[in-house]
Write a structure and sequence with these properties.
It is built from 6 helices and 6 strands; from the N terminus they run E-E-E-E-H-H-H-E-H-E-H-H. The protein is α/β, with parallel strands linked by helices. A 6-stranded mixed sheet has the order 1-4-3-2-5-6, sandwiched between helices.
């Protein structure tokens, strides 16, 4: 799939939450050109907001300009050469990273104040978001309780670990390739960030509603 919009970005919140009552998850998937934030660049990311009851609330998608002076990792680029459509989606019409992060922060805040960052696994995507939030928003992914205006009020959620805990699967079997399609809402895992975020958002909703 190719994206031809001027701003490769989707900001859609179908409803605002009662920020004093409701909790929601920001399920995020990142694409990048190497393993090390800063040395390499985040190319794109997609986020899907999910309510505490598993309802999809909105989406955000964007492509970012590469970091000045950053490298491209050869092994990572070998992966992208095997997925040319995903590479196109991750690199077409990039926007300045500072602009993207500013819009993302505003989008999260528009949904409420009780946000939880979530990823599958959080140790990968969370690492990238922590770097970009520090660099362009001046704050880490998760801040201490003494900070009153935290973007994410609670510690990040690892959906992979949640699958292991709720299903009893071995940790190494908690991979998208091993999940029944219905767990992902039958969304194909294409390595386009928003597609993968949608699948993981559906997975989170499935886990929430099958206690």
């Amino acid at each position: 799939m190719t994206l031809n919009t001027q701003y490769v970005q989707v900001e859609n919140a179908v409803q605002h939450l009662d920020s004093s009552m409701s909790y929601f998850y920001v399920v995020t998937d990142c694409e990048f050109d190497g393993p090390l934030p800063g040395r390499h660049s985040m190319l794109s990311f997609g986020s899907v907001a999910v309510s505490e009851t598993g309802e999809i609330l909105g989406e955000f998608e964007s492509v970012l300009e590469r970091l000045e002076g950053a490298e491209r990792d050869p092994e990572t680029m070998d992966f992208w050469r095997r997925h040319p459509e995903a590479w196109s989606a991750a690199t077409e019409n990039p926007q300045p990273a500072a602009f993207v992060i500013e819009r993302f922060v505003a989008w999260v805040k528009s949904l409420g104040t009780n946000a939880v960052f979530a990823a599958h696994p959080v140790s990968l995507d969370g690492l990238w978001f922590d770097y970009y939030l520090k660099r362009y928003a001046g704050r880490p992914l998760f801040e201490g309780p003494w900070v009153t205006d935290r973007l994410f009020k609670f510690a990040p959620l690892c959906i992979m670990s949640m699958v292991a805990g709720k299903t009893g699967r071995n940790h190494w079997d908690c991979d998208v390739q091993h999940y029944p399609p219905e767990w992902l809402g039958s969304v194909e895992h294409t390595h386009r960030a928003i597609d993968d975020a949608r699948g993981y958002a559906n997975l989170l909703g499935f886990l929430i509603n099958h206690r």
